[in-house]
Amino acid sequence: MSYRSLKLAGLSATIVAAALVLTACGGQPAAGGGSTEGAGASGSVVADGSSTVAPLTEAAADFFRDEAPDVNVTVATSGTGGGFAKFCADETDISNASRPIKDEEIALCEEAGIEYTEIVIANDGLSVVVNPENDFAQCLTVEQLNTIWGPDAEGTVTNWNQVDPSFPDLPLALFGAGTDSGTFDYFTDAINGEEGAIRTDYSPSEDDNITVQGVSGDEGAIGFLGLSYVEENPDSMKAVEVDGGAGCVAPTAETVQDGTYSPLGRPLFIYVNNASYADKPQVKSFVDFYVESEAEVAEAALFIGLTEEQKATAQDELATLG
Amino acid sequence: MRSLKDSVATAPTLPLSTGERPRERRLGPMMFLIVLWLSLLVAVVFLLTLIVNIVLEGGSRFGLQLFTEYPASSPDRAGARPAILGSIWVIGVTAVLTIPIGVAAAVHLEEFADKKHWFNRVIELNVQNLAAVPSIVYGLLALAFLTLIGVRDKNIVIGGALALSLLILPVIIIATREAIRAVPSEIRDGSLALGATKWQTTWRQVLPASVPGIATGSILALSRALGEAAPLLLLGALVFVSFDPNGLLSGFTTLPIQIFNWTGRPQEGFHELAAAASILLLGLLLLMNGLAIFIRNRYQKRW
């Protein structure tokens, strides 16, 4: 009675073993120290941080594979804060960040003796979006946005006509990024004056596509998300012009780059560990390549590239690291 | 006294209601059956909607490219090769880590341990409880353990396998114990009566007889691990890996994480890729569950 069962056990063990051996054979040389400079470089480059910036670093890694196929670039998305925690514990070579490093994070890095260089790698625009049917909210001032999104609005501002008497009697439906995202930090800081300050009776989501769906499905909807989502979903929603005190400005690549789309245009950063850059040739060639091809990278990841001035600054910073 | 009086008073009315009873009996079960069918229908409808949805969305992207290409910045060039290999690696290592330990623990608890001893009863209770712990807690445990032993890079194959092993170990122990318990004691008694030792009886009679049950339980547990993303995300799961995992210390990503990453992208093409990868994952899970059912039906003995 047991013969067949034993055979079965043997068979399943063989299958598992074979699967392991097969995958092991398909592998590449182990990641590790890194070798000669340039196209022949190998080793690993470890990046972590903001999920907003991750698509940029992923695109750079994707293109870099053609240059140096033996370099293993990995990207994780622990969030800007989580990324800095790992970066300052010397666990990563590059930290993706959707905001500049904070004082307490600087202290953390100093304590651990980690020296780093901040590089602006692309520009990002946050857009305020409304339903395509909405024809009255062409331009909103920062004050009006604050009226809608501020913590005080919770439970009281529920209709468009409370934002501006000229707006029709239409209930507001609010959609936006969830608290874990850099988009949330950035929007609350820029509009409500304090990071994290926002009314809580809106539909938050870590997935911006949910915001897209929500806004496209409700005539009175208003939401905020990255500019690239608007460009990718032009039929589902409409971007609102924002008046930051100097007139209405539409969110476009140009207005974000030149800083006129204020306060909702922002730079995105990578932080490079100086020691990694100096000691690991694969990190140096990857970062150099990243900055060099930032335009293609930004295009592929649906962000806005650097101005010539920004790019020159980035390259100067890297040059000082040698 | 009063209740007695009442019951006496109501007693004569009982025969009157007997005429109604059979119909009530038929109506009750019928309603219950309808409710059961409805709840089954809800589950099946949701599953079908999901399957139809992902097949419609991802069908066009489900091709060779998904298996051979690495993640890329453009959906037209991207594939899930590292995620597929990563899943195989992590599940393979998880199986190697968990099945021997799980089976050994179950054999000990069922055949050798003194079930009345308080220590064994505490262990038994704990195993039952651990099977119901949310998966993310095991991710935390693995994270803490790896930090404790000073592992710098935690998103490595062995780290992921460790978290998933912890997750499915209780499930495998429970399944194995059930399988061992299903072996009739006459077999053990017969073996012992013929002069075999306790160990020989367990190794030569009880274990082989319970292999189908163990295999079924293990495959189901592994298929649960295959679909898990939360504990791996906690370990700092990589969302972009451009190389094949090649060892226990290699970085990796798995299919659920790759799907999670692709669904968060603005481009429609990545959503289609995520759906295509979901088809693959669903197919793998169905295959594993099918295998478990096959083994159960083909090899399980009815005593």
Which tags fit this structure?
heterodimer; A: 322 residues; alpha/beta; D-Maltodextrin-Binding Protein, domain 2; 2 domains; 9-stranded mixed sheet; 3-stranded mixed sheet; 12 strands; B: 303 residues; mainly alpha; MetI-like fold; 13 helices; globular; disordered N terminus
Q: For the CA atoms, what is the radius of gyration of chain A?
A: 24 Å
Query: What's the order of the H and E elements of chain A?
Result: HEHEHEHEEHHEHEHEHEEEHEHHHH
Number of domains of chain B: 2
Report mean pLDDT of chain B, rounded to a whole number.
86
Order of helices and strands of chain B: HHHHHHHHHHHEHH
Instruction: Assign a percent range to the helix content of chain A.
Output: 40-55%
pLDDT < 50 runs, ≥5 residues of chain A = 5-9, 13-39
Supply the helix-strand structural class of chain A. alpha/beta
Q: List the domain count of chain A as a whole number.
A: 2
Strand content of chain A: 15-25%
Q: Would you count the extended β strands of chain B for me?
A: 1
Q: Ends of chain A: how far apart?
A: 72 Å
The CATH topology annotation of the largest domain in chain B reads as MetI-like fold
User: How many H/I helical runs of chain B?
Assistant: 13
By DSSP (H or I, 4+ residues per run), the number of helices of chain A equals 14
The pair of chains with the biggest contact is: A-B, 56 and 48 residues
Using DSSP, what is the number of strands of chain A? 12
Helix content bin of chain B: over 70%
CATH topology of the largest domain in chain A: D-Maltodextrin-Binding Protein, domain 2
Describe the main β-sheet of chain B briefly.
none
> Could you tell me the radius of gyration of chain B in angstroms?
26 Å
